């Protein structure tokens, strides 16, 4: 279930997933262009995750991994994770994968951990070393979660530089500067 007030969580659950119906369903109109309101057993459809999840809990459907987690994506991530454009595949790649993995393919969790581990280093490296103009191409490939990480790293680096260039310094407390009398 989505966090009611989190817009990102709501958008994650709007991602479409392919599924196969185990039971025939009557009285459901999935698409306005289809005149009938009947879905036969064995029908394959793509529905939003929130609906597919509810149907899966009722054992009415089986969910398959969507295209953003297909074999081609996995091979590209294994070859060079930093160069893969995950944003074009799914804006919320990690969050969506975490919600999807327990329902259809447990190996998605390993893919997410592997991809994030490699891309994390690249994101922080670029955030701390690259100028904004050079980073714009890099930013266009990042997922929403990675973009948030990049912006947080940029902000912390700016704060650090501001502090180093003349921000408030640490000083010894006045009480520590007094000499103590030694009793003889």
How does the SSE layout of this entry go?
Layout: H1 7-12, E1 16-21, E2 25-26, E3 38-39, E4 44-48, H2 49-57, E5 61-63, H3 71-80, H4 86-89, H5 93-100, H6 107-129, H7 132-139, H8 144-164, H9 174-177
Q: Explain this structure to me?
A:
There is one protein chain. The chain is mainly alpha-helical and 184 residues long. The protein contains nine helices and five strands, in the order H-E-E-E-E-H-E-H-H-H-H-H-H-H. 51% of the residues lie in helices and 10% in strands. A three-stranded antiparallel sheet has the order 4-1-5. Strands 2-3 form a two-stranded antiparallel ribbon. The mean pLDDT is 85.
Highlighted features:
184 residues, mainly alpha, 3-stranded antiparallel sheet, two-stranded antiparallel ribbon, 9 helices, 5 strands, 10% strand, elongated
Biggest sheet strand order reads 4-1-5
The amount of helix comes to 40-55%
Number of strands: 5
Q: How much strand content do the residues show?
A: 5-15%
Main β-sheet description: 3 strands, antiparallel
Shape descriptor reads elongated
Mean pLDDT: 85
Structural class: mainly alpha
Count of DSSP-assigned helices: 9
Oligomer: single chain
Between the first and last Cα atoms, what is the distance in angstroms? 74 Å
Query: What is the succession of H and E elements?
Result: HEEEEHEHHHHHHH
Radius of gyration: 25 Å
Domain DNA replication complex GINS protein PSF3 N-terminal: 5-55
Protein name: GINS subunit domain-containing protein
Keywords: DNA replication, Nucleus
Main location: nucleus
């Amino acid at each position: 279930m989505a966090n009611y007030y989190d817009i990102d969580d709501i958008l994650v659950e709007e991602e479409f997933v392919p599924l196969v119906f185990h039971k025939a369903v009557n009285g459901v109109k999935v698409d306005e262009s289809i005149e009938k309101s009947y879905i036969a057993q064995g029908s394959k459809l793509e529905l939003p995750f929130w609906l597919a999840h509810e149907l899966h809990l009722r054992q009415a459907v089986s969910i398959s991994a969507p295209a953003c987690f297909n074999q081609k994506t996995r091979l590209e991530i294994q070859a060079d994770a930093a160069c893969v454009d995950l944003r074009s595949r799914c804006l919320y790649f990690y969050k969506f994968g975490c919600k999807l993995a327990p329902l259809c393919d447990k190996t998605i969790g390993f893919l997410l951990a592997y991809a994030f581990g490699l891309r994390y280093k690249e994101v922080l490296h670029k955030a701390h070393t690259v100028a904004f103009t050079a980073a714009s191409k890099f930013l266009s490939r990042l997922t929403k979660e990675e973009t948030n990480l990049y912006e947080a790293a940029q902000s912390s680096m700016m704060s650090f530089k501001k502090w180093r260039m003349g921000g408030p310094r640490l000083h010894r407390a006045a009480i520590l500067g007094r000499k103590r009398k030694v009793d003889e």
